[in-house]
Write a structure and sequence with these properties.
The complex is a heterodimer of chains A (667) and B (223).
Chain A (H helix, E strand, L loop, with lengths): L14 H23 L3 H9 L4 H32 L9 H36 L7 H20 L27 H29 L12 H33 L12 H34 L7 H14 L15 H13 L1 H15 L8 H23 L2 H7 L3 H31 L5 H27 L15 H30 L41 H12 L11 E4 L4 H17 L3 H20 L4 E4 L1 H24 L2
Antiparallel strand pairs in A: 1-2
Chain B lengths: L22 H4 L12 H30 L9 H4 L2 H26 L3 H31 L8 H34 L3 H34 L1
Helix pairs in contact in B: 2-6, 2-7, 4-5, 4-7, 5-6, 6-7
Classes of the chains: A mainly alpha (667), B mainly alpha (223).
Chain lengths: 667, 223
Amino acid sequence: MFGKLSWAAIPFDQPIPLIAGSIVIFVVLAVIAWIVLSGHLPYLWREWVTSVDHKRIGVMYVLLGLVMLLRGFIDAIMMRSQQAFAYRTPGYLPPEHYDQIFSAHGTIMIFFGAMPLVIGLMNFVVPLQLGVRDVAFPTLNSVGFWLTATGALLVNLSLVIGEFSRAGWLPYPPLSELTYSPGVGVDYYLWALEISGVGTLLAGINLITTILKLHAPGMTYMRMPMFCWTALASNLLIVAAFPILTATLTMLVLDRYFGFHFFTNEAGGNMMMFVNLIWAWGHPEVYILVLPAFGVFSEVVSTFSRRPLFGYRSMVAATMAICIISFTVWLHHFFTMGGGADVNAMFGIASMIIAVPTGVKIFNWLFTMYGGRIVYSTPMLWAIGFMVTFVIGGMTGVLLAMPPADFVLHESLFLVAHFHNVIIGSVLFGAFAGYAYWFPKAFGFRLHEGLGKAAFWLTLVGFYVVFVPLYIAGLSGMTRRLQHFDVAAWRPWILIAAIGILIMACAAACQIAQLVVSIRQREALRDQTGDPWNGRSLEWATPSPPPAFNFAVLPNVRGEEAYWGMKQRALEQAKLGEEPAYVDIEMPRNSPTGFVCAFFATFMGFALIWHIWWMVGLAALGAYATFVVFAWRDKDEYIIPAETVARIDRVNRSARNAVLARHEGAP
Amino acid sequence: MTAVDATAGGSDPYRLGHDQESPTRQRTLGHADRGLVSKRIVTAFGFWIFLLSDIIMFSAFFAAYAVLVGETAGGPSGRELFNLNNVGIETAALLLSSFTVGLAGIGARAQSGSWFYGAMTATFILGAVFLSIELREFASMIARGAGPTRSAFLSAFFTLVGCHGLHITVGLLWLLTIMAQVLAKGYRADILRRILCFGLFWHALDIIWVGIFTVVYLMGVAL
């Protein structure tokens, strides 16, 4: 009846996951109870869960990303503390649990922390910057988000029901095959990623279509803000790379569920094929994450240096060059495969070449700052911290790109330090910069600057205190994923790294405090004008938060930095343009399709993990029924009458007129 | 920081990032000057992007097949298993169905019920013929002990060809849904867009089948 599921799946004998799981369940239930009892449920359902508004979906993506970031960070604290204790002792985490923790840490951070943050920012910002009212496929956008949430739910479910994978964040066979991983851990990993991978693919298709097909009049490709370009490159990579992940994981599923022989040791299976295929997705994935972060930094550096982005065209060229070259370097993740000197040299050189366009970008940002009047706000601090940190990470990367050096440093903590150096330095810093930069746009008030700066400095310092010792330990031969060790020379470095993670924990506390304090002081931090940073792109032309339709009248773009041009014209003439003729606006109607799809996907994933076949069939039927019901609906749009549009836009215009008047009053 | 200091430091004396409204740029305005494109174009474009991603997924299965084609583990190879007559009938049925789905698209746009339903029914029958021959081939291979668990080659074969067959199955289900929808709702703009997408989907499956026919069957028999 329930497949492999029985009471033995609940870890009654393991206090740590049981207590952690109970606390999470308690908190989730308490939040749900509070929502229901205080009567917020209808609001939540109407305005968020069923919303197809790209801004709302973007905010939900970011929220999911932040929560999962915290979850992955707790894993990181457990790993660092385990290693700090486990010198010639077993420590407090048994090996089978420690292996689950490092697997969950990587999986959660990449797929459910970094990806939702990046996709959320793109979802929120790109239509606003292009001057349009929504993405190309609003309901599909909601489906994509909820499928991602399903994946995150399944991974976290493994904490209390069953176990998670012990095979690392990329489940290399033959370890991940049924012979060596007979439990449900790898299955949790596989189905969580298969389902959320579909969600990511939908988001990618949606954003490409939006960027290439929907623009405000006059918004040509070479006038798009840099963030839109990097979003385009990132989504092209999603569409080109995620199908490979889906196919590869499907092959592993077939091996595990039906006894196929893609990657097994017997009957001609080839485990190196898995490693090749997974990295053919995995390396582009790095750039899927990092390119939007580059876009955020481009916006932030230019806004807070009060200058246009230096070398816009070279930046576009560098972005697209990275987009293509990122598909030609995957083998540098396993130089030790035995591909031979020629193969390794080819991929080593390609890996070094990809540093060139990245270097172009760094110089462009530096030249943008050069001679500018730099405002050291929180987003700008993240951007500057990124440039320093990322260059160091890039240099250790070029070092690792040399096959002879890689043979020595392969699978060492040096490698671990390197990729954390680039991913934290770029993606995490970029996500936090974007979060601080666009938060006022999303919610109408700014984040507390003092706590934001404190979080930045603690993160930066904590980051170096954690990872510089790991570089050194790695150079002295310490390999990754050690549950315990007995080499005295490594011990001091591991202890320093443990201190570093405490500093980073303080940074995380500052981030949470910043959000709480900012919400409480929101009246003082209110963004009255919609343009709190003196911005340059079109999202700052809308009020904060923007109305559902974003723009009352689609802006007429006359050059690069569309909003800056409008603002300058308004300042020169000391008035806004004439009030436009408002017309009715058609907007997509809310739809529970995404949520219902994810509901069935969750059951299907769970049933597949536990081999509950009747539930798989039932969930598939439900998903098909959802599709038919969605296809059958007659009205997919509603009208916002011209009077409402006019009323909302006049508020925005009067706020901006007030600014102009004050500006006139001042000399 | 408010928008009050809107002009503070806003100067760009060297016009480094700017190229505003220079005469040479006007020529590149092209596509965007027309404003928003039609829903039909947007939907079909997005669906094409999806189809490209689907083709990339198939390319991963093709790559796996190419790597594992020689790994028969002492079991049968393609030369012993494939029957080109059956594959010929499959190919003919599928290519013909691409033609009929084209007719269905024209019929829908002309709002001609007989053409639309007739051509869709023909497409369904041809697809079902294809699918039944494929399933019979699979069943006979499994009965002869040449199932997907026999060797890595057969795993890759069943996955690649089976994935295409699964797409055909989903396509047939989609086809019936669309026919029911036209019956219930008529030739509405959004339904016409779906028919367009279905046509693209069906043609893309044909393209993939040409690859399978060549790489798996023709080369398999020749090798």
